[in-house]
Amino acid sequence: MIVDQLKNNHYYSSLGERFQKAFNYLLETDFDSLDDGKHLIEGEDIFALVSKYETKPLSMGKWESHKEYIDLQYVHSGREKMGYASSEKLISLGDYDVERDVTFYKGEGKFLVFDKGEFILLFPSDIHMPGIAVNISSTVKKIVVKIKI
Known about the structure:
The protein is mostly beta strands. It has one domain (2-148): Sandwich (Jelly Rolls), CATH 2.60.120. Helices cover 8% and strands 49% of the residues. A hairpin with a 3-residue loop joins β2 and β3 (46-54). The radius of gyration is 15 Å and the shape is globular.
């Protein structure tokens, strides 16, 4: 897990070409005029999921992890909490869903607050809970760049 501001993306170029393409997409795209949905960057190897939503109470959150893709979650506008947890503190709620690339869990973890311009890079071992309200529900525009492993 890596947490930082987008302006510091140059520190992560050594992670590889796909990461650099993902960061370049975030830097060069006008998200204010881009519709929600899936946007291909490099076919199914790198794509962005753009969404605008209302943050939810912690009680409605779901712990999740992915196997096929690394998540680069960037907050374009708004503010939200995101949880992170180790697998030792969580219990799987079922089998891995290959089609959706997700496993869900229950349990407890810790939370960070993300503001406009900040990102989190989540690897397969990073169980997370996105989209949680800081105090009250608010509108967030987030871009999740999926980077195939």
